[in-house]
Protein backbone atom coordinates (compact mmCIF):
# COMPACT_ATOMS: atom_id res chain seq x y z
CA UNK A 1 0.00 0.00 0.00
CA UNK A 2 1.41 3.38 -0.95
CA UNK A 3 2.24 5.81 1.82
CA UNK A 4 -0.44 8.18 0.57
CA UNK A 5 -3.12 5.51 0.90
CA UNK A 6 -2.02 4.13 4.23
CA UNK A 7 -1.86 7.67 5.60
CA UNK A 8 -5.47 8.38 4.61
CA UNK A 9 -7.49 7.92 7.78
CA UNK A 10 -10.75 9.41 6.59
CA UNK A 11 -12.70 10.01 3.40
CA UNK A 12 -11.74 13.68 3.79
CA UNK A 13 -8.05 12.67 3.66
CA UNK A 14 -8.74 10.90 0.35
CA UNK A 15 -10.62 13.95 -0.87
CA UNK A 16 -7.64 16.18 -0.13
CA UNK A 17 -5.25 13.74 -1.83
CA UNK A 18 -7.54 13.73 -4.90
CA UNK A 19 -7.60 17.51 -4.87
CA UNK A 20 -3.83 17.62 -4.86
CA UNK A 21 -3.43 15.21 -7.78
CA UNK A 22 -6.21 16.42 -10.07
CA UNK A 23 -6.48 19.56 -12.14
CA UNK A 24 -8.96 21.89 -10.56
CA UNK A 25 -11.47 21.52 -13.40
CA UNK A 26 -11.64 17.75 -12.86
CA UNK A 27 -11.67 17.88 -9.09
CA UNK A 28 -14.43 20.48 -9.11
CA UNK A 29 -16.50 18.40 -11.51
CA UNK A 30 -16.34 15.50 -9.04
CA UNK A 31 -16.61 17.52 -5.85
CA UNK A 32 -19.11 20.19 -6.83
CA UNK A 33 -22.85 20.57 -6.96
CA UNK A 34 -25.50 22.80 -8.47
CA UNK A 35 -25.76 26.58 -8.03
CA UNK A 36 -25.04 27.64 -4.42
CA UNK A 37 -24.38 24.01 -3.40
CA UNK A 38 -26.88 24.25 -0.53
CA UNK A 39 -28.12 20.71 -1.06
CA UNK A 40 -24.58 19.40 -1.49
CA UNK A 41 -23.64 20.81 1.92
CA UNK A 42 -26.93 19.89 3.55
CA UNK A 43 -26.58 16.21 2.63
CA UNK A 44 -23.49 16.14 4.87
CA UNK A 45 -24.89 18.51 7.50
CA UNK A 46 -28.00 16.35 7.97
CA UNK A 47 -25.77 13.63 9.45
CA UNK A 48 -24.03 16.13 11.67
CA UNK A 49 -27.37 17.38 13.01
CA UNK A 50 -28.24 13.94 14.37
CA UNK A 51 -26.68 12.52 17.50
CA UNK A 52 -26.43 8.92 18.55
CA UNK A 53 -27.84 7.41 21.73
CA UNK A 54 -25.64 4.40 22.47
CA UNK A 55 -26.34 1.34 24.59
CA UNK A 56 -23.59 -0.26 26.70
CA UNK A 57 -22.61 -3.64 28.21
CA UNK A 58 -23.96 -5.66 25.31
CA UNK A 59 -20.92 -7.81 24.26
CA UNK A 60 -19.71 -6.31 21.03
CA UNK A 61 -16.77 -8.67 20.57
CA UNK A 62 -18.13 -10.02 17.26
CA UNK A 63 -19.68 -7.65 14.74
CA UNK A 64 -21.61 -8.82 11.70
CA UNK A 65 -21.88 -6.22 8.91
CA UNK A 66 -23.72 -8.47 6.46
CA UNK A 67 -26.86 -6.91 5.07
CA UNK A 68 -29.60 -7.77 2.62
CA UNK A 69 -29.19 -5.39 -0.32
CA UNK A 70 -31.96 -5.70 -2.91
CA UNK A 71 -32.61 -9.38 -2.38
CA UNK A 72 -29.08 -10.68 -1.77
CA UNK A 73 -26.60 -10.62 1.06
CA UNK A 74 -23.78 -8.11 0.82
CA UNK A 75 -20.84 -8.00 3.20
CA UNK A 76 -21.60 -4.36 4.01
CA UNK A 77 -24.82 -2.31 3.84
CA UNK A 78 -23.33 -0.37 0.93
CA UNK A 79 -23.60 -0.33 -2.86
CA UNK A 80 -21.49 1.83 -5.15
CA UNK A 81 -23.52 4.65 -6.73
CA UNK A 82 -23.09 5.30 -10.45
CA UNK A 83 -20.63 8.06 -11.29
CA UNK A 84 -19.90 9.12 -14.82
CA UNK A 85 -16.58 10.30 -16.25
CA UNK A 86 -14.48 8.57 -13.57
CA UNK A 87 -11.68 8.01 -16.10
CA UNK A 88 -11.05 11.73 -16.25
CA UNK A 89 -9.75 11.44 -12.71
CA UNK A 90 -7.85 8.17 -13.11
CA UNK A 91 -7.25 6.01 -16.14
CA UNK A 92 -9.11 2.71 -15.62
CA UNK A 93 -10.92 4.23 -12.64
CA UNK A 94 -14.31 2.60 -13.30
CA UNK A 95 -12.77 -0.87 -13.38
CA UNK A 96 -10.72 -0.08 -10.27
CA UNK A 97 -13.85 0.87 -8.30
CA UNK A 98 -15.77 -2.14 -9.61
CA UNK A 99 -12.95 -4.45 -8.51
CA UNK A 100 -12.74 -2.81 -5.10
CA UNK A 101 -16.51 -3.30 -4.71
CA UNK A 102 -16.24 -6.97 -5.68
CA UNK A 103 -13.41 -7.47 -3.17
CA UNK A 104 -15.52 -5.81 -0.46
CA UNK A 105 -18.52 -8.01 -1.33
CA UNK A 106 -20.87 -5.19 -2.32
CA UNK A 107 -22.78 -4.31 -5.52
CA UNK A 108 -21.27 -1.90 -8.05
CA UNK A 109 -23.36 0.33 -10.32
CA UNK A 110 -21.97 1.25 -13.72
CA UNK A 111 -23.07 4.65 -15.01
CA UNK A 112 -24.44 5.22 -18.52
CA UNK A 113 -21.75 7.90 -18.82
CA UNK A 114 -18.93 5.73 -17.49
CA UNK A 115 -15.53 5.64 -19.11
CA UNK A 116 -15.65 1.82 -19.20
CA UNK A 117 -18.13 -0.21 -21.20
CA UNK A 118 -20.78 -2.59 -19.87
CA UNK A 119 -18.75 -5.53 -21.20
CA UNK A 120 -15.36 -4.31 -19.95
CA UNK A 121 -16.71 -4.09 -16.41
CA UNK A 122 -18.40 -7.49 -16.62
CA UNK A 123 -15.12 -9.02 -17.73
CA UNK A 124 -12.88 -7.27 -15.23
CA UNK A 125 -14.95 -7.28 -12.04
CA UNK A 126 -16.32 -10.53 -10.64
CA UNK A 127 -18.94 -9.08 -8.25
CA UNK A 128 -22.61 -8.08 -8.31
CA UNK A 129 -23.21 -5.58 -11.11
CA UNK A 130 -26.00 -3.08 -11.61
CA UNK A 131 -26.37 -0.90 -14.71
CA UNK A 132 -27.64 2.67 -14.40
CA UNK A 133 -29.57 4.05 -17.33
CA UNK A 134 -30.32 7.65 -18.07
CA UNK A 135 -33.34 8.01 -20.29
CA UNK A 136 -32.02 8.95 -23.70
CA UNK A 137 -34.12 10.59 -26.37
CA UNK A 138 -32.71 7.98 -28.73
CA UNK A 139 -34.86 5.04 -27.60
CA UNK A 140 -33.29 2.37 -29.85
CA UNK A 141 -29.90 3.31 -28.42
CA UNK A 142 -31.26 3.13 -24.86
CA UNK A 143 -32.82 -0.25 -25.60
CA UNK A 144 -29.51 -1.52 -26.93
CA UNK A 145 -27.73 -0.46 -23.71
CA UNK A 146 -30.33 -2.29 -21.61
CA UNK A 147 -30.04 -5.37 -23.84
CA UNK A 148 -26.27 -5.29 -23.44
CA UNK A 149 -26.57 -5.10 -19.64
CA UNK A 150 -28.94 -8.08 -19.75
CA UNK A 151 -26.60 -10.07 -21.99
CA UNK A 152 -23.65 -9.29 -19.72
CA UNK A 153 -25.59 -10.66 -16.71
CA UNK A 154 -26.08 -7.43 -14.79
CA UNK A 155 -28.44 -8.33 -11.96
CA UNK A 156 -30.25 -4.98 -11.77
CA UNK A 157 -31.19 -1.98 -13.85
CA UNK A 158 -31.09 1.36 -12.04
CA UNK A 159 -33.16 4.12 -13.64
CA UNK A 160 -32.15 7.62 -12.60
CA UNK A 161 -35.19 9.88 -12.54
CA UNK A 162 -33.88 13.16 -11.15
CA UNK A 163 -32.23 14.42 -14.31
CA UNK A 164 -34.86 15.50 -16.84
CA UNK A 165 -32.48 18.40 -17.48
CA UNK A 166 -28.99 19.01 -16.17
CA UNK A 167 -28.38 20.88 -12.95
CA UNK A 168 -26.64 24.25 -13.19
CA UNK A 169 -23.13 23.40 -12.05
CA UNK A 170 -21.34 26.69 -11.94
CA UNK A 171 -17.89 25.39 -11.01
CA UNK A 172 -17.84 23.66 -14.40
CA UNK A 173 -18.72 26.85 -16.23
CA UNK A 174 -16.06 28.81 -14.40
CA UNK A 175 -13.38 26.18 -15.02
CA UNK A 176 -14.09 25.84 -18.77
CA UNK A 177 -14.89 22.19 -18.05
CA UNK A 178 -16.03 20.33 -21.12
CA UNK A 179 -15.71 16.90 -22.68
CA UNK A 180 -13.60 16.63 -24.75
CA UNK A 181 -11.37 19.24 -23.22
CA UNK A 182 -11.20 22.57 -24.84
CA UNK A 183 -7.71 23.81 -24.35
CA UNK A 184 -8.06 27.31 -23.00
CA UNK A 185 -5.16 29.25 -21.46
CA UNK A 186 -6.80 28.82 -18.07
CA UNK A 187 -7.09 25.06 -18.09
CA UNK A 188 -3.73 24.55 -19.86
CA UNK A 189 -2.10 26.13 -16.85
CA UNK A 190 -4.30 24.04 -14.55
CA UNK A 191 -3.27 20.81 -16.35
CA UNK A 192 0.41 21.76 -16.47
CA UNK A 193 0.44 22.14 -12.71
CA UNK A 194 -0.67 18.52 -12.25
CA UNK A 195 2.06 16.48 -13.96
CA UNK A 196 1.12 13.05 -12.61
CA UNK A 197 -2.39 13.44 -14.00
CA UNK A 198 -1.14 15.01 -17.22
CA UNK A 199 1.42 12.30 -17.99
CA UNK A 200 -1.38 9.72 -18.20
CA UNK A 201 -3.32 11.91 -20.60
CA UNK A 202 -0.28 12.56 -22.76
CA UNK A 203 0.48 8.83 -22.88
CA UNK A 204 -3.03 7.42 -23.36
CA UNK A 205 -5.22 10.33 -24.50
CA UNK A 206 -8.50 11.47 -22.99
CA UNK A 207 -10.93 8.75 -21.99
CA UNK A 208 -14.33 8.55 -23.67
CA UNK A 209 -17.79 7.67 -22.45
CA UNK A 210 -17.58 4.13 -23.73
CA UNK A 211 -21.28 3.28 -23.48
CA UNK A 212 -22.30 6.33 -25.46
CA UNK A 213 -20.04 5.72 -28.45
CA UNK A 214 -22.25 5.96 -31.49
CA UNK A 215 -24.84 8.13 -29.78
CA UNK A 216 -25.19 11.32 -31.69
CA UNK A 217 -23.53 14.28 -30.00
CA UNK A 218 -22.10 12.38 -27.06
CA UNK A 219 -19.40 14.98 -26.85
CA UNK A 220 -20.53 17.96 -24.92
CA UNK A 221 -19.84 21.51 -25.88
CA UNK A 222 -17.87 24.09 -24.06
CA UNK A 223 -20.20 24.60 -21.18
CA UNK A 224 -20.12 21.45 -19.11
CA UNK A 225 -21.35 17.92 -19.27
CA UNK A 226 -24.65 19.11 -17.85
CA UNK A 227 -25.36 20.94 -21.08
CA UNK A 228 -25.38 17.69 -23.04
CA UNK A 229 -28.46 16.62 -21.13
CA UNK A 230 -30.73 18.85 -23.15
CA UNK A 231 -29.64 17.16 -26.33
CA UNK A 232 -29.36 13.51 -25.39
CA UNK A 233 -31.72 12.97 -22.47
CA UNK A 234 -35.47 12.86 -22.62
CA UNK A 235 -37.31 15.36 -20.41
CA UNK A 236 -40.66 13.91 -21.55
CA UNK A 237 -40.02 10.61 -19.75
CA UNK A 238 -42.88 9.93 -17.31
CA UNK A 239 -44.55 7.27 -15.17
CA UNK A 240 -46.10 5.54 -18.17
CA UNK A 241 -42.72 5.30 -19.86
CA UNK A 242 -41.24 3.89 -16.66
CA UNK A 243 -44.02 1.30 -16.52
CA UNK A 244 -42.98 0.10 -19.98
CA UNK A 245 -39.46 -0.49 -18.72
CA UNK A 246 -40.87 -2.35 -15.70
CA UNK A 247 -42.95 -4.51 -18.02
CA UNK A 248 -39.99 -5.50 -20.19
CA UNK A 249 -36.97 -5.71 -17.84
CA UNK A 250 -37.31 -9.04 -16.05
CA UNK A 251 -34.65 -8.61 -13.39
CA UNK A 252 -34.39 -6.23 -10.44
CA UNK A 253 -35.46 -2.67 -11.21
CA UNK A 254 -34.26 0.11 -8.91
CA UNK A 255 -35.47 3.70 -9.16
CA UNK A 256 -32.89 6.30 -8.14
CA UNK A 257 -33.64 9.91 -7.33
CA UNK A 258 -36.78 9.81 -5.18
CA UNK A 259 -37.38 12.49 -2.51
CA UNK A 260 -41.17 12.76 -2.29
CA UNK A 261 -43.19 10.12 -0.38
CA UNK A 262 -45.96 10.18 -3.03
CA UNK A 263 -43.46 9.21 -5.71
CA UNK A 264 -42.04 6.51 -3.43
CA UNK A 265 -45.50 4.95 -3.07
CA UNK A 266 -45.96 5.03 -6.83
CA UNK A 267 -42.62 3.28 -7.36
CA UNK A 268 -43.69 0.54 -4.93
CA UNK A 269 -47.15 0.29 -6.57
CA UNK A 270 -45.67 -0.31 -10.00
CA UNK A 271 -43.70 -3.31 -8.83
CA UNK A 272 -40.17 -1.91 -8.77
CA UNK A 273 -37.77 -3.80 -6.53
CA UNK A 274 -36.16 -0.93 -4.63
CA UNK A 275 -35.80 2.82 -4.62
CA UNK A 276 -32.91 5.14 -3.85
CA UNK A 277 -33.63 8.29 -1.88
CA UNK A 278 -31.25 10.62 -3.71
CA UNK A 279 -30.80 14.20 -4.84
CA UNK A 280 -27.92 13.22 -7.14
CA UNK A 281 -25.35 14.25 -4.57
CA UNK A 282 -26.57 17.86 -4.66
CA UNK A 283 -25.77 18.15 -8.37
CA UNK A 284 -29.30 18.71 -9.68
CA UNK A 285 -31.96 20.74 -7.82
CA UNK A 286 -30.19 23.09 -5.45
CA UNK A 287 -32.42 23.63 -2.45
CA UNK A 288 -33.80 20.09 -2.58
CA UNK A 289 -34.12 18.44 0.80
CA UNK A 290 -31.14 16.55 2.25
CA UNK A 291 -31.63 12.86 1.70
CA UNK A 292 -31.40 11.89 5.37
CA UNK A 293 -34.17 14.42 6.09
CA UNK A 294 -36.34 12.99 3.30
CA UNK A 295 -35.87 9.42 4.47
CA UNK A 296 -38.31 9.21 7.41
CA UNK A 297 -41.33 10.31 5.37
CA UNK A 298 -40.52 7.85 2.62
CA UNK A 299 -40.02 4.98 5.06
CA UNK A 300 -43.44 5.72 6.60
CA UNK A 301 -45.15 5.95 3.21
CA UNK A 302 -43.64 2.78 1.74
CA UNK A 303 -44.51 0.67 4.82
CA UNK A 304 -41.80 -1.91 4.15
CA UNK A 305 -43.16 -2.94 0.73
CA UNK A 306 -39.80 -2.43 -0.99
CA UNK A 307 -36.28 -1.80 0.33
CA UNK A 308 -35.15 1.79 0.52
CA UNK A 309 -31.55 2.75 -0.20
CA UNK A 310 -30.22 6.24 0.33
CA UNK A 311 -27.27 8.21 -1.02
CA UNK A 312 -25.71 11.64 -0.62
CA UNK A 313 -23.24 12.85 1.94
CA UNK A 314 -21.95 9.53 3.28
CA UNK A 315 -18.46 10.39 4.53
CA UNK A 316 -18.27 8.36 7.75
CA UNK A 317 -19.25 4.91 8.94
CA UNK A 318 -21.43 6.65 11.52
CA UNK A 319 -23.39 8.22 8.64
CA UNK A 320 -24.21 4.73 7.38
CA UNK A 321 -25.30 3.76 10.89
CA UNK A 322 -27.59 6.80 11.11
CA UNK A 323 -29.14 6.10 7.70
CA UNK A 324 -29.89 2.52 8.75
CA UNK A 325 -31.26 3.71 12.09
CA UNK A 326 -33.65 6.01 10.21
CA UNK A 327 -34.96 3.09 8.13
CA UNK A 328 -32.70 2.66 5.08
CA UNK A 329 -31.86 -0.91 4.08
CA UNK A 330 -28.46 0.31 2.92
CA UNK A 331 -26.62 3.27 1.44
CA UNK A 332 -24.94 4.06 -1.85
CA UNK A 333 -21.72 6.04 -1.99
CA UNK A 334 -20.59 8.15 -4.91
CA UNK A 335 -17.77 10.50 -4.06
CA UNK A 336 -16.12 8.38 -1.33
CA UNK A 337 -14.67 5.83 -3.77
CA UNK A 338 -14.33 8.48 -6.48
CA UNK A 339 -11.96 10.47 -4.26
CA UNK A 340 -10.13 7.26 -3.38
CA UNK A 341 -9.63 6.14 -6.96
CA UNK A 342 -8.60 9.62 -8.10
CA UNK A 343 -6.01 9.79 -5.34
CA UNK A 344 -4.55 6.30 -5.63
CA UNK A 345 -6.28 4.02 -8.14
CA UNK A 346 -7.72 0.68 -7.05
CA UNK A 347 -5.85 0.81 -3.73
CA UNK A 348 -7.48 4.18 -3.06
CA UNK A 349 -10.97 2.85 -3.82
CA UNK A 350 -10.28 -0.12 -1.55
CA UNK A 351 -9.05 2.23 1.14
CA UNK A 352 -12.27 4.27 0.95
CA UNK A 353 -14.35 1.15 1.54
CA UNK A 354 -12.00 -0.05 4.27
CA UNK A 355 -12.32 3.29 6.10
CA UNK A 356 -16.13 3.20 5.89
CA UNK A 357 -16.20 -0.40 7.08
CA UNK A 358 -13.82 0.20 9.97
CA UNK A 359 -15.82 3.24 11.10
CA UNK A 360 -19.13 1.40 10.76
CA UNK A 361 -17.86 -1.53 12.84
CA UNK A 362 -16.50 0.83 15.49
CA UNK A 363 -19.77 2.79 15.58
CA UNK A 364 -21.73 -0.45 16.02
CA UNK A 365 -19.43 -1.47 18.87
CA UNK A 366 -19.64 1.91 20.54
CA UNK A 367 -23.43 1.93 20.14
CA UNK A 368 -23.68 -1.54 21.62
CA UNK A 369 -25.14 -3.43 18.68
CA UNK A 370 -23.53 -6.31 16.85
CA UNK A 371 -25.79 -6.91 13.83
CA UNK A 372 -27.06 -4.63 11.07
CA UNK A 373 -30.64 -5.83 11.59
CA UNK A 374 -30.63 -4.48 15.17
CA UNK A 375 -29.88 -0.90 14.18
CA UNK A 376 -33.08 1.06 14.68
CA UNK A 377 -34.52 4.46 15.53
CA UNK A 378 -33.80 3.97 19.24
CA UNK A 379 -30.14 4.81 18.54
CA UNK A 380 -31.01 8.33 17.36
CA UNK A 381 -31.22 10.91 20.15
CA UNK A 382 -34.54 12.74 20.34
CA UNK A 383 -35.03 15.28 23.06
C1 LIG B 1 -18.80 12.97 -10.52
C2 LIG B 1 -20.17 12.39 -10.34
C3 LIG B 1 -20.79 11.79 -11.41
C4 LIG B 1 -22.07 11.23 -11.25
N1 LIG B 1 -22.64 10.58 -12.30
C5 LIG B 1 -23.84 9.98 -12.13
C6 LIG B 1 -24.39 9.19 -13.17
O1 LIG B 1 -23.79 9.03 -14.23
N2 LIG B 1 -25.60 8.64 -12.95
C7 LIG B 1 -26.30 8.79 -11.78
O2 LIG B 1 -27.39 8.26 -11.63
N3 LIG B 1 -25.77 9.50 -10.77
C8 LIG B 1 -24.56 10.09 -10.91
N4 LIG B 1 -24.02 10.78 -9.87
C9 LIG B 1 -24.72 10.83 -8.58
C10 LIG B 1 -24.33 9.63 -7.72
O3 LIG B 1 -24.83 8.42 -8.25
C11 LIG B 1 -24.87 9.75 -6.29
O4 LIG B 1 -26.24 10.00 -6.31
C12 LIG B 1 -24.16 10.82 -5.48
O5 LIG B 1 -22.80 10.92 -5.83
C13 LIG B 1 -24.29 10.50 -4.00
O6 LIG B 1 -23.71 11.47 -3.22
P1 LIG B 1 -22.23 11.37 -2.60
O7 LIG B 1 -21.31 11.63 -3.73
O8 LIG B 1 -22.23 12.46 -1.59
O9 LIG B 1 -22.04 9.98 -2.02
C14 LIG B 1 -22.74 11.33 -10.00
C15 LIG B 1 -22.10 11.94 -8.92
C16 LIG B 1 -20.82 12.46 -9.07
C17 LIG B 1 -20.16 13.07 -7.88
Number of strands: 10
Strand content: 5-15%
What count of domains describes the coordinates?
Answer: 1
Q: Mind telling me the CATH class? A: Alpha Beta
Radius of gyration: 20 Å
**Largest sheet, spatial ordering of strands:** 3-10-9-8-7-6-5-4
Q: Could you characterize the architecture of this molecule?
A:
By secondary structure, this protein is of the alpha/beta class. The chain has one domain (3-379): Aldolase class I (TIM Barrel, Alpha-Beta Barrel), CATH 3.20.20. The chain has 16 helices and ten strands. The strands form two sheets. The chain has an eight-stranded parallel sheet with strand order 3-10-9-8-7-6-5-4. The protein has a two-stranded antiparallel ribbon with strand order 1-2. α7 links the parallel β5 (129-133) and β6. α5 packs parallel to α16 (335-367). It is globular. Bound molecules: flavin mononucleotide.
Nutshell version of this structure?
Helices cover 44% and strands 11% of the residues.
List the helices and strands and how they pair.
Layout: H1 3-6, H2 11-21, H3 24-31, H4 38-49, E1 67-69, E2 72-74, E3 78-80, H5 93-104, E4 108-110, H6 118-124, E5 129-133, H7 139-151, E6 156-160, H8 170-174, H9 185-192, H10 195-204, H11 229-232, H12 239-248, E7 252-258, H13 261-269, E8 274-277, H14 291-302, E9 308-311, H15 317-325, E10 330-333, H16 335-367
Parallel strand pairs: 3-10, 4-5, 5-6, 6-7, 7-8, 8-9, 9-10
Antiparallel strand pairs: 1-2
Helix pairs in contact: 2-16, 5-16, 13-14, 15-16
This protein binds flavin mononucleotide (FMN).
Amino acid sequence: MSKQVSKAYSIEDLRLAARQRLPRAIFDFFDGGAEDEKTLRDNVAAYQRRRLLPRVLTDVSAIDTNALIVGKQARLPIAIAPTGAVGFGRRGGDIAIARAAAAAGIPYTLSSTATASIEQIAKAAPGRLWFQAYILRNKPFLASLIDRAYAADYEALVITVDLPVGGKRERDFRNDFAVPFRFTPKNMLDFAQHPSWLSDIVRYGMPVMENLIGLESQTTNASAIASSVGRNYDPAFNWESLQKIRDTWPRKLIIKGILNPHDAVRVADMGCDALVVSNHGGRQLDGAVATLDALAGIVRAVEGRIPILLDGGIRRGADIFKALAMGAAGVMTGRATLYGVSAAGEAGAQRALEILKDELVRTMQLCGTSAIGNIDRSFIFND
